[in-house]
Predict the structure.
Amino acid sequence: MMTASIAGDEGAYRWLLEDIGRSVRAMARAAFARAGVGDADIEDAVQETLLAIHLKRHTWDAGQPLAPWVYAIARHKVVDALRRRGRRRAEPLENFEEFLAAPEAEDPHALSDARKLLETLAPRQRDIVTSISLDGQSIAATAKRLSMSEVAVRVALHRALKALGAAWRRSVA
Amino acid sequence: MRTSELIAALSADPIPEPIRLGRRVAVALVIGLVGALVIYALICGPRPHFDEWLRTVRFDLKFVDSFAFALPALLLTLRLARPDARPRALALWLIAPLVLLAASVVGELIVVPRDEWLSRLVGQNSMFCMMAIPLMAAPILAALIVALRAGAPLHPALTGAMAGAAAAGLSALLYASHCPDDSPLFVATWYPLATFICVGVGALAGQRFLAW
C-alpha cells in the first residue's frame, strides 16, 4: 500500500493515511490517558504524526515492514506532545499492534492548532492548502482558480506542507 | 483543521522524486572529503619519505585504527537517521578500534623502555593534532549534517554525535599521514581527545539541525 502511495496512487495513499490516523489516535488516547493528561490535544498529536509521516516517508525502506516505522514516528510525536504538556518522561504503550486492531474514528468536532499555524504561511501557500484541505477542491480546480499551472500548485503545496511542519516544530520549541 | 482535511492536503501532494538518503550522504561525504583535503593541503601535507614510513608497523596502525573507527561510525550514522533503526549490533563494531588501540598500547609498553613512555605520549605536536583533526573534520561534519536533514532520527543529538565521530575518524585517517608521532601512546591519548571535540560539536549540531 505504501509502495503504491509512494508511486503516486493518490487514492491508496489517502486510504492509508486515514488508516494510520485511526491507529495513531487510539495510541495517543491511551498514552494521554495513562499520563493523566486531558484529551484536548489528541487530534494535534495525530495530525502532527501524519504530517511527519508524510514529510519523512522516504525514510521508510520498502524492504522493511511498515508498522514498526509508523509506530516509531507516532511514538516520537506522541511523546513530544506529552512532553509539551509538562510530562517530563512519557511512555506511550508498547504494543502498536493493539492499536492497529482497535482503531478509533475521528471526533468530527475536534479541531486542531493547525489552523493557527496556517496563518504563519505565506498568503499564496495558505490559500492553496485551505483550498485543497478545507474546501476539498482538486489540484486542477485550485490551479484554474489561481490561474497557476498544476505543477506550480503541486510544488507550492509541497512547500507549504514542509513549512507547516517547520511551523509546528517551532510552536513546540 | 480536521484530520480528514489535513489528509486531503497530504494525499494531494505526491513527492515528485523520492529522496535517497544513502545517496545524499554519499554525495555529502565526497564534498566533505574534498573540503578536508583542501585544508590538509593548506596546513599539513604528507610527511616526508611517506612511502618509507608506510613500511613501519606503528605508522600503518594509525590508518587501520582510524578506518576501523570511521567505518562503523559512518554506517551507524546512516542507520540512526531512520526512525525504525536498530543500531545495537552495529554499535558493537565501535569496540573493535578501541580493542585494537588498547592492544597496541600494551604492545608499545612492552617493547619500549619505561623512561621513554612519557616523551612518546607527549609527542612533538599534540596541540597541532588537536587542532588539525577537528579542523579537517569540520567540512565533513557540516556536509553530513546537511544531508542528514532529509532523515528522521529519533535521537538527533546522538545522530549528530555519531556524524561527528565519523567525520573525526575520516579526518584522522588523513591527518595520520602527516602526523610525525607514530607511537600508540600518542595516538591513544590525543586522537580520542580530538575526536571528543568533534563528537561534542556534532551532538550540538544534531540537536539544533536534525530535530524534526
